[in-house]
Amino acid sequence: MDRKVLLINPWLSLGIYKNTKLDGLVTQIPILSLASLSGMLTKEGHQVEILDLIISDSPQKDLYTKLARFLPDYVGITFSTPAYQEMKIIAKTVKDFNNSIILIGGGPHASALPEETLQDTLLDLIVIGEGEETLKEIINGNPWENIEGVCYKKNSKIIKNKPRRLIDNLDNLPFPAWEKFNLQKYKSSPITSKSFPVGPIETSRGCAFRCSFCNKNIFGHKVRAKSIIRVIDEIEFMLKNGFKEIHIWDENFAFYENRILEMCKEIEQRNLKFLWNIFFGVRTDSVDKEFFDAIAKAGCYSVAFGIESGNQEILDGVCKGIKLEQCKKVVKFAKEAGLETVCYFMLGLPGENEKTLKDTIKFAVELNPTYAKASITIPFPSTEMFLQIEQEGRIKSYDWSRYNLHNTSDVYQHENLTWEHIHRYYNQFYRKFYFRPSYVFTRFKKDILHGGLFFDLRHCTNFIASKFNNYTYAQNH
Hints:
Shape: globular
Mean pLDDT: 90
Strand order of the largest sheet: 2-1-3-4-5-6-7
Largest sheet: 7 strands, mixed
CATH topology of the largest domain: TIM Barrel
Distance between the termini: 52 Å
CATH superfamily of the largest domain: Aldolase class I
CATH class of the largest domain: Alpha Beta
Number of strands: 15
Helix content: 40-55%
Radius of gyration: 22 Å
CATH architecture of the largest domain: Alpha-Beta Barrel
Number of domains: 3
C-alpha cells in the first residue's frame, strides 16, 4: 500500500550564518539527502513531498499549510546539532496537527545520540546512519523490531536495533528526486557559485581518515564510489532538471585520483558543458598537478581545501594527516591551473594558544587563496574531540542550539583559550585576510573587469556589522 511521506529540512540549516561573517554569502542548495531518500521512496510507489524550510519566509505557517494540504502518514525530519531546537518545534507542530502521524528523525545529530534524542522529543523513531534502505523498510510497513539501523519507542521504552550494513553498490540507488524541488526559489551567492540554480552531487560516500573533530556516523570510514558512468548519467539528469551548476559534496572526492581523471575524460567525451565546483574540498595529500589540470579542462572552476590550521603540531594533534609544505605546493598547483581556491580553517582546535592562532592567520595570508573561511571549533556529539572533552569534564552546555561554528560562546572550556580570545582571533582572521591592501586591490581590479563591485561593497558593510554583533554576543554570554 502506498503511503504519504513528508520530508522536512529545518529552517536553521542555513540560518546558523545569521549575523556572522558569512551572512549573505551562503548559496541555498536543495538538500541532497532528502532528494535521495525521496528517490528511493518514490521508486517504491509512495507519495513523497519535500518541505525545505531554508527557503521559507514563514516556516511555521508553511509547515502547517503543507500538513493540511498533503495529510501525510509519515513525517521525516533531518537535522544537524545546531538545528535540534528547530526539529523539536517542527515535531510539536506535526503532533499537534495529528498525533497519529509517525515522526521519524535522521541526520548527523540523530545518528550520534539516538536514545537521548528520542527521550527528549516527540519523535517516534530514528534512522541511524545511511537512510535509504532503512526508511524504505519503515514506510513499506516492516515491523520496527525487524528493521536494522533504527531506534524507537515502545511502551515507554527506548529500543535500539543492531546497525545496518552500509550500501555496497551505490549505483543501485535511484537518482535523487530533484523534480520535487522548485529550483527557482533557491538563491546563490556570486562568491560560492557562478550560475544558478546550483545542485549538489555525491560521487562517493565515506572518508577513510579519522580527524578528531569530524563525525562519520552517517557514511562511515569505508570509501564507496559510484561508477563513472553512473556519475555522469546523474549529472546529465541534473542538467535536464534545470541545474546550471554542480557542486561536488563528497567527503573525500579525490581519494581515488585515477577515478577522477576518468570522470573528466567522460565529461569531455560526452561534450558536456557545465560549471562545477569541488565545494566540500579535497585533501592536500590526495592530489597532484595532473589532477588540477584535468578538472579545470573539464569545466571545474573552483576547488576547496580543508587546511584547518597553520601550525603543524595542532594538525598532528587532531590527526589531520597532512603537512603544511604539502598545502603550499598543492594550492599553488590549483592556481596555476586557473582555478579559484578556497581554504577552510578552524580556530580553537585542541592545544591551541594565541601563538598557534596567529600561525593560522599568517598561513592563510601566505597561501593567499581566492577565499578563506574560518570557523570556531565546536566539539560535536560522537566525535573523538567531544568524547575527550566530555570525559575531562569540560563540556559546559548541552543546549545544542548554541553549537554554532560561527556565532557561539562558552559551550565548553578550552584548555588554553577564553572565548574572548577565540572571538577576537576569529575577527582578526577575516580582517587580516580580506582587508590586506594587496587583496583589496586584486578584488577591486577583478570587480572592474568582471563586475561585482556592488556585491563586495555590501559584503564589506555586512562584515563590519557582524563584527559588532559578534563582539556584543561574546560580551553578553
